[in-house]
Design goal:
This protein is of the alpha/beta class and 331 residues long. The chain contains 15 helices and 11 strands. The radius of gyration is 23 Å and the shape is globular. The N and C termini lie far apart (51 Å).
Length: 331
């Protein structure tokens, strides 16, 4: 049997404790839990350690204190280094973790697999490892991430990205997706499936746009664009053509498009699509509306066209979304 791969989970103050303890458990139980259930010999896939910057205790964001197995050192290179979620003020953690960044760069040069969950991706970006690379993070922090790291190819609709031995996952509880992804990488798809089944986890999940709410790009200083966004929200049930929208605000279509994209990162048309899909989600979650009764409320006439749009934005069909998220009394 091959020697277990060496996994280090890096713990830091104000980390999300579940993203540490949960991922430690999942790695440690790969090749173990399923085998125990079926009375087979255990074959651990990973050797897991929890390390901190200097070996001291880790004070997590919820008040739990975790004991580290030791200190993270440049000459002690793991196969996998996992960075958990930041559970409180991101800028404070980024400022406190200066000693981590040179270690991340050294491990990256040594071809260590570096994996970060949710807002932990900010730490990898702060080390400069994501310049011109694909990444994802929690959808609720995507705008802040884009502003802070404009040269990163942020794909926040995705639940995970892989680029040159750097693994990123979005969503606070997506640590189990990250762990299963790495279990498959080191032990194969069958062990990953066994681990998921043993722990009653869904496998696979590909995107997080399904879970994103109606939080859209409004954090900017362009008052014209803010007014346009408010106008769009108030006219979801009508067809808003770009020339008519530009005329409404006494600007050219070129100026409107340029300023809108500069402020939000999106074209006006794509932003309006997002608003309509978000409104459709809300109606599906809270009312008994059929697709035919929903369409006039979001400015669509063609059911098949909107169904394709909905699936493209959320990753699932309207019926699947209704089954997953509609309130029981509305089903």
């Amino acid at each position: 049997m091959n020697s277990p791969a060496n996994v280090v989970v890096y713990g830091f103050d104000h980390a999300l404790s579940s993203a540490i303890t949960g991922v430690v458990d999942l790695f440690a139980q790969a090749g173990v839990t399923w085998q125990n259930i079926h009375h087979q010999p255990s074959q651990p896939v990973f050797s897991v350690r929890l390390l901190s910057a200097d070996g001291s205790d880790i004070h997590c964001s919820n008040g739990i204190t975790l004991k580290a197995d030791g200190a993270l050192r440049a000459n002690d290179q793991p196969d996998v280094l996992l960075i958990p979620s930041i559970g409180s003020n991101i800028d404070r953690v980024l400022a406190n973790e200066q000693c981590l960044y040179p270690l991340l760069r050294a491990f990256h040069l040594a071809q260590v697999d570096i994996a970060a969950n949710c807002t932990g991706v900010f730490l990898v970006a702060q080390a400069g490892l994501l310049e011109n690379k694909a990444a994802t993070t929690h959808w609720g922090f995507a705008s802040a991430f884009k502003h802070k790291y404009p040269n990163v190819d942020l794909q926040s609709e995705k639940l995970h990205t892989i680029d040159n031995n750097i693994f990123c996952t979005g969503g606070g509880m997506a640590w189990f997706d990250l762990a299963l992804l790495l279990i498959e990488r080191y032990a194969g798809a069958e062990v990953a499936r066994q681990t998921a089944k043993a722990h009653v986890l869904d496998l696979p999940r590909y995107n997080q746009s399904l879970y994103a709410g109606s939080r859209r790009q409004t954090v900017h200083q362009d008052e014209l664009v803010k007014d346009i966004q408010i106008y769009m929200m108030g006219h979801l049930n009508t067809l808003v053509a770009l020339p008519a929208l530009a005329a409404e605000f006494n600007v050219t279509t070129r100026t409107l498009t340029r300023r809108f994209k500069a402020a939000t990162g999106l074209s006006p048309g794509y932003y309006l699509q997002q608003l309509r899909v978000d409104h459709a989600r809300k109606l599906i979650e809270t009312t008994r509306c059929t697709l035919d009764s929903l369409l006039p409320q979001i400015g669509y006439e063609d059911a098949s066209s909107f169904s394709r749009l909905f699936k493209r934005h959320t990753g699932c069909s309207i019926s699947q979304y209704r089954a997953k998220f509609a309130l029981v009394e509305n089903q």
